[in-house]
What we know:
By secondary structure, the chain is α+β, with helices and mostly antiparallel strands. It has helices spanning 56-98, 110-133, 139-143, and strands at 19-22, 29-34, 40-43, 50-52.
Amino acid sequence: MKNEQDNVTLEAGATAARREIPCFLCNDLVEIRMDKRAKPYFICDACGVQTFVRRKSGISKLEILIKDIQSDISSALKVSALTIQLLELKKRLQEVENSRGILGLFTENKALDEAKELIQREIQGLDNQIDQLNQKPDIITKSATKTARKP
């Protein structure tokens, strides 16, 4: 007796857009393809693994995996953009501190102090945003900020 989950196809609204996931064996990116019965499969050229997803529950899990990977990539891109901003602000802060010169060590310059304080607040805000994105348990996002966050 056949299970009703045997021989299922994707829903009518399923997209055929190019999608990739890491191979579960070697971690190379593999393209998810559709067979002639609209069922997903992928073949890894690097290690030779072939995977065919035939059941409805497997197809659903694959779709969830794809969405999770896309979300992780999106988070990594956000962290990367914030990291670039953070590095630029740190450079600007250094320029403000250097603009005082030797005489500036002994005199007050309210405008420079305010500029420095503003930049430091912006840096703290970016650090907080990066920390929030790093709360996600993905490896990509956490590794992207190690270099930029060093003092």
